[in-house]
Specification:
10 helices, alpha/beta, binds ligand PAZ, Rossmann fold, phosphopantothenate--cysteine ligase activity, two-stranded antiparallel ribbon, 18% strand
Length: 351
């Protein structure tokens, strides 16, 4: 069982979990999938992030390195995107996601011999460091003074587990298996996703897309974003925000950016009565291989795999929950096995 230090000084109250009884269900009809014209308009009318060429170089180098060694590559997206309300951003709209699903899954892909591009919300949870960064009030709780009082050491209670994590982290780092690529805004996410997808086309069906990030459904187009902090006197004391739908680029990813890769997307809902229908509708609309449905309230204990063949729940058992088993340790190997079948099926039809 995982040991977590507690600090007597700070309360263990969590403020980030919404009141799920009153959370809003997204029962409004889904917007249609993005067309090539939507793609052209979006990427023409919005400025690419200035660092994109550097990411392009890093990603190309990383993919070539692993391609030469016949290693499969997973793109794991993780964390929520923001929608800035001002160019010099003071206010923004955020999307729920701590990055647990993505960071944890990345570790299991690495453990199963994949290389991982980790496209994540900057400052959300990261593979390996996630064990220590958000689990306690302060990382210093893991440390202790050496017996002679001259050095800092890892507290004896945490030695064993930290050594295991450290070895895995060092291995991934030394073997160049993990490439970290950050985003904050939804525009940064979309530009970077498109770029990485196109770079990954070099490895064709050896690529798997694991899209766990929570991507904004609505945004404020660049043409309507004010340059500076909105002043209350400019808006008559009341701020009315008029957002546009974010084009549903998953269809472009499937059809054009990564047409032979295996693509897994996630669907988050809060109302269990609509989860499977929504996941199935997404699978039909985007025409990819797998949608994993999860509910905000139970996402760490159960998920549902929705494929063209049917649906299947993956649930942690009570002993697994007690022993704090990561549900990702079950779902990632299942996806890897499906990826193997996907590769086989592509080979059989000569792709
Ligand atoms: O990052 P986290 O572990 O807190 O949450 C993961 C999740 C619920 C954001 C993810 O599993 C998911 O469902 N992503 C897709 C969200 C969506 O429907 O857009």
């Amino acid at each position: 069982m995982t040991e977590t230090p507690t600090s007597p000084m700070l309360s263990r109250v969590h403020t980030s979990a919404p009141d799920t009884d009153s959370a809003i269900d997204r029962t409004i009809p889904e917007f249609p999938a993005a067309t090539p014209i939507d793609e052209d308009n979006y990427f023409r009318l919005h400025k690419p992030p200035p660092y994109l060429s550097q990411i392009s170089r890093d990603v190309a180098e990383f993919i070539n390195f692993h391609h030469k060694q016949n290693r499969k590559v997973a793109l794991v997206t993780s964390g929520g995107t923001t929608v800035p309300l001002e160019n010099n951003t003071v206010r923004f709209i955020d999307n729920f996601s701590a990055g647990t699903r993505g960071a944890t899954s990345a570790e299991y892909f690495l453990e199963n011999s994949y290389a991982v591009i980790f496209l994540h919300r900057e400052f959300s949870l990261l593979p390996y460091s996630r064990h220590y960064s958000h689990t306690t009030n302060c990382f210093l709780d893991y440390l202790a003074e050496s017996p002679d009082g001259t050095k800092v050491e890892v507290d004896d209670k945490f030695q064993k587990k930290m050594l295991v994590v450290l070895k895995k982290y060092r291995y991934a780092k030394d073997q160049n298996l993990l490439l970290m690529v950050p985003f904050t805004t939804v525009h940064q996410y979309l530009f970077t996703l498109k770029l990485i997808a196109q770079e990954m086309s070099v490895i064709g069906y050896d690529a798997v897309f694991f899209l766990a990030a929570a991507v904004s459904d609505f945004f404020l187009p660049s043409s309507r974003i004010p340059q500076h902090k909105i002043q209350s006197k400019e808006v008559g004391g009341k701020l009315v925000v008029d957002l546009e739908p974010v084009p549903k680029f998953l269809r472009r990813l499937v059809d054009s950016w990564a047409p032979i890769a295996m693509i897994v997307s996630f669907k988050l809902e809060t109302d269990d009565s609509i989860l499977i229908d929504k996941a199935r509708a997404a699978l039909k609309r985007y025409n990819h291989q797998l949608v994993i449905g999860n509910l905000l309230q139970t996402r760490k204990k159960q998920v549902v795999f929705v494929t063209p063949e049917g649906e299947r729940w993956v649930k942690l058992t009570p002993p697994q929950i007690k022993n704090r088993i990561d549900i990702e340790s079950i779902l990632v190997p299942e996806i890897i096995s499906m990826h193997g079948d996907w590769i086989q099926s592509r080979k059989e039809i000569g792709l």
